[in-house]
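FW: tagging you since you asked about this chain on Friday. Here's the raw sequence from the shared folder, copied in full. Didn't touch anything.
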Amino acid sequence: MRHGVLLQAGGSGGKVIMKYLEECAMKNDERVLRIGIASREEIQARTLAVVRGEIKVTADDPKVWFNSV
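HL: got it, structure written out here
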């Protein structure tokens, strides 16, 4: 069974859903790709904060970012 796209806006409910989807993906030999959606300015500010060491990137963070419109 394939799962649709999940956009996580925050809260613990999103984390529970993400955990479930990850478990299903592992059972089906699929991979989970986390994406981030933010404005260009927010993406740039986050990237610079990571480089400065102000934000530590975790395994749960999005690997791919897209601009919001």
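FW: The longest helix spans residues 12-27.
HL: agreed, and The chain is about 40% helix and 10% strand.
FW: great, closing this out.
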